[in-house]
Amino acid sequence: MGATTALHKSSGVSEVVSSVSMLAITIAVLGGVALISLGSLRSANGVLLTGSENAASEAGVLLTVVATQSNSSGTYVWLFNYGWNQAGLTSVYVGGGLAQGWSSSCSALQPKEMCVLQLPPGTHGTVAITFGARTVSLSV
Amino acid sequence: MRRSKGVSTFVATLILVSITLSLAYVVYEGVSRFAPPEQDVFTNQVSQVGGSPALVLVVVNASSPGTPLAFEAGAASSQVGVLYFDGTRYGTSHQLCLANATTFFSVYTGDGVLRAAGNGRAWIDGYWTDALEVRSGWQEVMFADASSCTVTGPDGTAVAYPDADISALPIMGALPSSSFVLYVPTGGLSGSFLMVFDGSYDRIA
What we know:
The structure holds 2 protein chains of 2 kinds. Chain A is of the alpha+beta class. Chain A has one helix at 2-59; strands spanning 63-71, 74-81, 91-94, 97-98, 103-104, 113-119, 126-131, 134-139. The model of chain A has no long low-confidence stretch (mean pLDDT 88). Chain B has 2 domains: 1-35; 42-203, no CATH class. Chain B is elongated, with a radius of gyration of 25 Å.
């Protein structure tokens, strides 16, 4: 009587283990397939999301050149952000080439605020100031 | 006895699952040959950076890493030769520099100083200069109005077109990548730019 009960119990445990194992294998296989098949969709979604966020952010960056001045200590450009998003100066080009030796207070230009860009003395030509995808162009 | 039966059921199910997966793989392999290649998604950013000729900065982000096969400007393709812009249109040449035109291409270098000297103006990785300290990877070089020119890598070796270290595809940085940066001379005109990948393309402007 006792031996029969033990055999039944052992058989039940074996069935449960086998079912759980099969469930685990099925989940692993389906999960792997889902990861592979949705991978490209996720990366495409990421690129589009980042692009849309950047475009939306840049739409709120509206910049204008308030004034320029050149003297013996340098060439100065004052910029005003009349948009509603913060703008960060990323690079400065003079004549189509990256400029060197400039300094600015435009690394985090808040809305309704002004900043100044200082270029080395004797700078002349077309200046392009980029704030992400936004570019402000002027001649000095 | 019962335990043995449970184990054999489990093994039989495993075998069935293996057979099913194998068959599914065989069917997938057969069908995937007829399926179109995976299509990437691209976002582009084009910024005017001025200059003479006027240059544009192009940043392309792709949804998966890859290596562009070609860059097409107007009717000219980097698969044909080194791209140039003569103020009105794009063309290709088998020289690194041309009088009365701006050529643009890329050079593969290690770390060190890349030199691009000619009897016109030279541009390296964003700077109008004939020598620039660069990091390992592809460097974009332009020659404006130069009838003769030489490009010398950090190891002192002069490179010419065609060469394994010269690519008519103007690109900066490491490849393969999912983000591509390049500068294109446009002269202020609106151009038609296309970046071609294996199985897909990105119309930039």
